[in-house]
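Per reviewer request, we include the raw input and output of the structure prediction for the construct analysed in the revised manuscript.
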Amino acid sequence: MKKQAYIVYDNAVEAFAKKLSEQWQKDGYCEVKAMMAIQATENNKTLSTVESICSWLLGLGADKSATLIGIGGGVTTDMVGLAAALFKRGIDVEYVPTTLLGQVDAAIGGKTGVNLDGVKNALGIVRLPKKVHILEESLETLSPEEFRSGAAELLKTFILFDAGLYAKAVRIFSLVQGAGYTKEAIKSALPEIIELSRAASACKEKAVKKDLFDRDKRHLLNLGHTYGHAIEWWQNVDGGHVAVSYEAKQGAYAEPEKPSLTLANFTHGEAVAIGMVIAARLSEIEGVAQPGLAARIAADLEACGLPTGLPVDAQELLPALANDKKKDGDKIDFVFLKEIGKPVLKKRRLKDLLIAR
């Protein structure tokens, strides 16, 4: 009997989702019983959306043998994964991540989740998907912003686990950035990028298997995320959208002087890129790393088109830092770097992690 599949997809990738569904049925991979489109935004990443997916499945008579398939970016796979875990106490789930960020991060490792009261992924469960389909064609229509965001998470994985692949990734994304992230440059680099994506996914999967429920060593994957999530919180809270100059995204903060200055609007990957540089700076301050590591990582990230400068005083991020998921009492499991490929996990008090802009 063919796999009975129910597909939930981000409406932004509708054409790709329908084409893939048709191909799967033609190839005999599965029988697609129904498809549901969702708006995969952070504002819609809620229990209400997850409940609507479950209600849809219930109304269609889906049973325990059903497979729920999520096609989209990290927001989609996070919600679809949680819905699959909850529906009838758990059905199989597969992902087709359609962003580079999803391929190397959100779709790997089994973390699902939704936001609550402005806190990112405050509710969720760990549950591994049956399969993750990493497809080159799913990346063909990504915007430069989406590529850069995914590049940051891909580089993070190699900063943690593989210095050689890190250098290769920096070279490839620097070339694409140098060409202005044109469609032609992206298309030309896609074969190498998808190869890097699969390698990064394998690195993360290996780390996850050692600590599935995120109690200890898996915390290493949080490199750059303590400050990254705090930056995302800062720019989304009321009044958090503070006007900053373009130089803030490139590394040197400047007070707004002209009315033409744009609003800070960092993607997840951009925020993590900033967080990784801060982690490297703190590693030098702690004496874990030799001087120069932060400057090297910052130069590499900037060459790939990523920001590296903290856009606001760390003190203003304190409410979000205090709500970090890795917080235990008055301390946080923070990821330092000895060098590229050699992370170090240490518990530190929040006040010891505040850094000057």
